[in-house]
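Suppose a classmate hands you a notebook page containing two proteins, each written out with its sequence and a corresponding row of structure tokens. How would you begin to make sense of it? This section walks through that situation. The first entry is reproduced here exactly as it would appear on such a page.
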Amino acid sequence: MAEASLLGDPALQFPSPNLDRYGDPLAGVVTDSDGPGTRGGMGDGNGTGDGSGTGPGLGPGRNGGTGGETFQAGRNGVGFPACIYCPDAKYSEAARKAKFQGVVLLQVVVSPDGRATRIQVVSGPGLGLDEEAIEAVKTWRFKPALGPTRKPVAAQIAVEMQFRLL
């Protein structure tokens, strides 16, 4: 007997299924274990996944993702993007005049083509440094993360940018 597994976030919880029916090629005759989806998946998705997504993922994810089309870098067989062009952010005038230093923490989705998208400030000191960090990261270029199928995927990462006066 094969061990059941799905590619996806291990924190996702599913109700306990009727296990004597799942995995049985004839289960569709006895119950709706396959759901209205296509190509072997459960739920209404397409592919071997569970839920509304495509491929082996859970929920609305694609190709192993768990929610939308974005993967978590470093989880479930997804690598990390690598920055290949990463110019420093400019210091804002307000922070320079106040002789202010600090760290901006951003949440960034790196697209399969290596661009920074969906940039959000998680924490920052203000005084214009948050905005300067966002503007800098918009110009960065990455080698994208590879997903479980070894193809480039959108991956969410954290970017920490330190601002120090010399």
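The notebook's second entry, a different protein, reads as follows.
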Amino acid sequence: MSNIDEGSPIAPAPAPVEKVNPFQRIIGVLFSPTETFQSVARKPDWVVPLLVLCVVSLASAWAISTRVDFHDLARQTMEMNPNFSEIPAERQATILKFTEGTMKVTTYTSPILSIIGLLVIAGALLLGVRMMGGQGNFAQAFSVAIYGWYPRLVKGVISVIVLMNRKSITIWDLQNPVRSNLGFLFDPRTRPVAFGFWSSFDIFALWTLALYVIGYSAISRLSRGKTAAVVIILWLLVVLLTLAGPAMQSIKK
């Protein structure tokens, strides 16, 4: 006789513990994002992918800093202001020194700035999908923000390779080192708005947007159509904000 009571319920087998390999996820997000973000939604992680982003970002910044003259870059930046020549010489020197220092600080603190930016992205997109009736928590949102940023990191690495092979690097080279958008068709000195607008439609930026649609749809359980609406609206707001400066510059000319 069997010792099992035929009338007693059979306990379900425990769900297997998902093994998280961040490096597999980094590759997966670029080539199989749907499966990867479903895994992220089940078990979010951020330490290793964020550390990789920061290390590569810092290494790239250091490599570029060895090839550029920050004082010359500051001068080129200020000369884009049509009123700069009217400023007294002493004041020009002060502004140039301040701009040069700001560029150096920004370059060497790029990992910190990246973390702050990703925190803002995660919070804004999580708020957006939650307002649309979606689910998700900040750990999931931050994890998606980091993994979805990797196309940008790919562009950054390519940019460093391109710039390191140039004899000299100008401020305009730094603005669009890889011709992955139509911004290169416009001179940023004479047509800053057109340059800024078309630079926004960058292949790597659009790739990141697509990943964010997939990723935030996975954690929010919203349709990709609703998620795309949130992502695109927030992206357009960022584009408009970045165009405000060039627009003012054009009006002053």
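A careful reader of the second entry would note: The mean pLDDT is 88.
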